[in-house]
Each structure stands twice: as structure tokens, then as C-alpha cells.
Amino acid sequence: MDFTLRPEQEAYLAELRSFGEKELAPHYRADDLAGTLRPDLIPTMARMGLTGLRVPERFGGQEADAVTTGLAAEEIARHDFNACYVLLDSALVSDILLAGATEEQRARWMPSIASGATVPAVCLTEPGQGSDAANLALRADPDDDGDGWRLIGEKTSISLGMYTPVGVVFARTGGPGARGVSAFFADLTDDRLSRTPLDDLGSRSIGRASLYFDGVRVGRADMIGAEGEGFVAVMRGFDYSRAVIGLMCLGIASAALDDAMAYAREREAFGRPIGTFQGVAFPLVEFATQIRAARLLCYEALALKDAGEDPAVPANMAKWWAPKLAADAVHQALLTFGHAGWSTDNTIGQRLRDVIGLEIGDGTAQIAKLVVARHLLGRSTAP
């Protein structure tokens, strides 16, 4: 197995590192305090190609492979974890469109994703259906003219929900269960949609929101794939994006660990740097080891995606492990700083608040483990 990055990937990472240091890191804490993404963030990321990573070149995108997308997510998350949601949603929706949309639909929707004009939301979770997404309740009722539907119901916990003008909305067009769910590329600027911001512990700038649909119209040309195929489409997309999420979490954990190691070299106690004490050094070494191992698991999943093979097992392993590992690593970094880490002047506390959110979002640890169990044990002998 070749673990060497291609020269163009190395060059791209160096470019992203410089970009992150200059354009992202200085705003990370300020955006959290303001509780909003600054207006120039998305255009700035779009100019770096970060909104169009998975968009084909013919639609103005980078047509990057899955591994390169993951590398970019990890590097961006090191500097501004919350800015990475722009990359994540753009990539996930792009993959959903590539898997299920017609060429005409892709030509309609993907150029604006690549340019950053629209960063689409993924509208799946509902107040009563989070992990049980196959039983979602939001309805798509047939329109009077028979050429479309009216969306009725509520979505919640929608990342970028307060900002985005469009979203992939999953709605019930048929009977119960997964086969009754269809996907629509919907206009979220419709007057019949209202938004309520959620007051969150972390990732305060990403505009997580509840969306209320009171008859928002979608036409037949807005349906992605065939009727009743929406849930299947999003599950395929999640199998890939969960590895990207893993790398987002490892990026922020690596940044916190780097800061803790620098502090351990400089801070003195009992006449010597605290890094010379095993009680300080060994926990940092343990987390550095585990982060490296988890990173390779994420790369394996993305390499399988690029090879046209099923990434479900390593991607879901990465989804339950990497966020938990990252939260634990950032926590240890905070403890390494001691009282200095407890102050809000230090970004370690914000990193901890932010990364915990992805222990919940886009599939809990229990759901990821369930997917893996069914692959390893078989459906008839798994939970």
C-alpha cells in the first residue's frame, strides 16, 4: 500500500496551509463570539476551489478525488473547524447529485455550488426522526396541477440552515419506511419557509437551524433520482462523507495537540519543561499515535471510494472513532495547558465545544457501529 501523497497533493496542501493561516485561523474565535459566518468566508473559500472540490470540471469545479477532498478537509479544519462545514456540505451534495441527478440537473445546480454562489444544506433530520431517518415525517403532498409537490413539515439540526438559499430536502412521497422517501433540490428562499436558529454549545457560527416548510413547492424537475430513491441516495453519500468528517475531527485534534506540545516545551515547573515529565508527555504520545492510526482508516475509506469500491465499513468505523478520539485528544490538550487552557483567551476550549458536535451530527456512534455490525456479522445476526 502506497502512503505517499502525489506531488500535486503536497503542493495543494501547502497552499491550503498558507491560506488557513492567513485567511481562516485569525477569524476562528471571532466568528464564534459573533455567532455567524463572516460574509466574505464563502467567496474566499470558493476562490480556493473548496466549494467545488467534488464538482466536475465541466461545471466549473475541481473534480478532485475523494482522498484529496479528505486531505483538504483535514487541513482546513486545523485552522477553522467551522469553515470546513462549507466544504463538507458542498462535497456531500455534489456527490448526491453525481449519484442520482440527471446531466441536465447537474448543469442547473452544480456550477453555483462550484462558484460558492450556493452552499446547499442537507435537510434530513427531523425533531422526531434523527437516527431513525428512514421514518421521517415531512410530507411532499401532490400539487393541484399534478406536476409537483408541496413540502409540509419540519427539519431540524440543519447545518448552515440560517444561511443557505437551497437544500437537498428528503420528504415522504409514498408509504412508510425508506422506500417512501424522495429527494428534492429545493429553493429555501420561498416565503412559505421559515427558519429558527438553534442556540448551540459549539460551532455557533454555522447557523444550525430548524426549518419549517408550509407548502414550499418543488417540481418534477427538482426531484433527484426516481421517486422513492431519496433515502438510498443520502445513505450512499453518508458512507463517503463520514470519512471526510473523520478527517475534519482529526484536523482540529492535531492542531490542539500541536499547541499542547509547544506549550509542554516552553512551560516550566520544578525547574524544567513540563514535557520532561512522563505524566505530561505520555498522554500526548498516546493521542498522537491514535490520531495517526485513525487518519489511515479515513484514507482507506476514501481510497476505496476512488476505486469504485464500497467504503461503508472503514468510513463508519472512522465516524464513530475519529470524533470521540478528537474530543478526548482536545480535552487532554486543554489539561496540558492547565489553567491557561481553561481561559476563553485560548482556543482549546472552543475546539472542544466544536468537535463534540460531530459525535452527534451526520450519524451517531451507535448508528455507525450498527452499519459496521451488519457488514461484519450479517443482517440476520447483527443488532
UniProtKB/TrEMBL annotation:
Gene3D superfamilies the record matches: Acyl-CoA dehydrogenase/oxidase, N-terminal domain (1.10.540.10), Butyryl-CoA Dehydrogenase, subunit A, domain 2 (2.40.110.10), Butyryl-CoA Dehydrogenase, subunit A, domain 3 (1.20.140.10)
Residues covered by the Acyl-CoA dehydrogenase/oxidase N-terminal domain: 7-116
Domain Acyl-CoA dehydrogenase/oxidase C-terminal: 228-377
Required cofactor(s): FAD
InterPro entries according to UniProt: Acyl-CoA_Oxase/DH_mid-dom, Acyl-CoA_Oxase/DH_mid-dom_sf, AcylCo_DH-like_C, AcylCo_DH/oxidase_C, AcylCoA_DH/ox_N, AcylCoA_DH/ox_N_sf, AcylCoA_DH/oxidase_NM_dom_sf
Pfam families attached to this UniProt entry: Acyl-CoA_dh_1 (PF00441), Acyl-CoA_dh_M (PF02770), Acyl-CoA_dh_N (PF02771)
UniProt key word Flavoprotein: yes
Key word Flavoprotein present: yes
Keywords per UniProt: FAD, Flavoprotein, Oxidoreductase
Domain (Acyl-CoA oxidase/dehydrogenase middle) ranges: 121-216
Family: Belongs to the acyl-CoA dehydrogenase family.
PANTHER family: ACYL-COA DEHYDROGENASE, ISOVALERYL-COA DEHYDROGENASE, MITOCHONDRIAL-RELATED
Protein name: Acyl-CoA dehydrogenase family protein
